[in-house]
Amino acid sequence: MAWNPQGGGGSGPQGPNIEEILRRGQDRFRRLIPGGVGTVRGGLLVLLVVAAVWLASGFYKVQPDELGVELVFGRMVGTETPGLNYNWPGPIGSVLTPKVTAINRTEVGFRSGGGRARLARDVPEESLMLTGDENIIDTQVVVFWKIDTRIPKGGNQDNLTGVRNFLFNIRNPELTVKNASEAALREIMGKNRFEFARTGGRAKIAGEAQILIQDILDRYGAGVEVTRVQLQKVDPPGSVLDAFRDVQVARADMERKINEAEAYRNEVVQRSRGMAAQIVLRAEGYKREKTEIATGESHRFLAVYEQFKQNKAVTKRRLYLDTMRDVLKGMDKILIDNRAGGVNVVPYLPLDTLMRGRGAGAQTKPAGEKQ
Predict the structure, then answer these.
(1) Could you tell me if 167 and 126 are in contact, meaning their C-beta atoms sit under 8 angstroms apart?
(2) Handedness of CA 244, 245, 250, 256 (dihedral sign)
(3) Residue 148 in contact with residue 103, Cβ under 8 Å?
(4) If you write DSSP's letter for every residue of 22-58 in order, what string do you get?
(5) Handedness of CA 78, 84, 87, 91 (dihedral sign)
(6) Residue in 185, 195, 177, 210 with CA at minimum distance from that of residue 126
(7) How far from the centroid of its chain's Cα atoms is residue 216's Cα?
(8) How far apart are CA 173 and CA 147, in angstroms?
(9) What is the pLDDT along the chain (371 residues), one digit of tens a residue?
(10) In whole angstroms, what is the distance from residue 348 CA to residue 342 CA?
């Protein structure tokens, strides 16, 4: 019966005749196998076709970010690079294609939501940790990791121990990384003080956490390489946040008072040191002055003594006259002549006084008056 979708005797286009196609296919199959499928030749041909299809199913494709891991009877026999490759088809062989270049993200202490907003949900049983000074701290961390393709020490380019460990040593890589990360963070936080962890020690803690997480995973033989550890949040728990802020304000006031006291102390100390240095310098100057004066007096005395040794009478007379001049310089003078057995007062004309008075009078005399 011919298939006519138009029905009736219309002049539209005719569809394919399914019965004719099947009949032609059967005729071609009979020509290939004259005796039918039940013959030996027919069975061999069917087996060959099935074998060809089975062998052809061994071709597989590896994407650029993947690595082809070939298994034969469940045992890893080799790896293949991206492209079209071949391995024994199942059930003899199989192929695993892990994404060795993809960077995975594991969150500890929170779970980010989907969508553009990515609202985070806190997980207190993971985020709350105890610090070294017995304070509770709320920590949220993101650990970035990938399949370990590093060459072990002493290995060669074909030694993919990390890939083998990742595929066969751990069942749930995400959970393994999360547990290792949480254990490492709790250990590190337990060794550091609260203020250090939430202020200047964030970078140091992240670096130590990456090293410790990698060490734990290597001891597990997880085949995971930790690329980066990022601290998202290091704060006090939300229930005591207000009290913590009050403590921070009080601590800031305390530090301000301490700084003011230190500034005042430094000012007073510097002023006192300046005054002390001034007094010391003044005393040094006075000491130097007295020393120089004493040295000069001693030199003058020695010089006089040398002259005295050369001519004692003249030196005595000179010393006497100098002494009398110094003594009588500011005194009223009366000369007494005791010669001829009597005491007569000799008139004394103070020429120096008269000369000084005459000079003063000349200065006060009017300009028009004649001398």
Answers:
(1) no
(2) positive
(3) no
(4) HHHHHHHHHHHSTT-TTSHHHHHHHHHHHHHHHHHTT
(5) positive
(6) 185
(7) 25
(8) 10
(9) 444 444 444 455 555 677 777 777 666 666 665 555 556 666 777 788 788 888 888 888 888 888 888 888 888 888 888 888 888 888 888 888 888 889 999 999 998 876 554 577 888 899 999 998 888 889 999 999 999 887 766 555 555 788 888 999 888 999 999 999 999 999 999 999 988 988 888 999 999 999 999 999 999 999 999 999 999 888 888 777 777 778 778 888 999 999 999 999 999 999 999 999 999 999 999 999 999 999 998 998 888 888 778 888 887 888 888 888 888 777 766 666 666 566 666 666 666 677 777 666 655 555 554 44
(10) 18
Report which secondary-structure segment, H or E, holds 231. strand 224-235
CB neighbours of residue 262 within 10 Å: 10
Helix (H), strand (E), coil (C) string for 178-218: HHHHHHHHHHHHCCCCHHHHHCCCHHHHHHHHHHHHHHHHH
d(CA 225, CA 215): 10
Tokens read off for 177: 């990384």
Residues with Cβ within 8 Å of 87's Cβ and at least 6 positions away in sequence, in order, are 58, 60, 68, 70, 71, 72, 80, 93, 94, 95
CA distance readout (Å), 88 to 4, 44, 82, 173, 321:
47, 22, 18, 28, 140
Closest CA to 220 of 212, 229, 228, 230: 212
d(CA 161, CA 218): 11
One-letter amino acid for residue 44 of the chain: L
**174: CB partners within 8 A, 6+ apart:** 104, 106
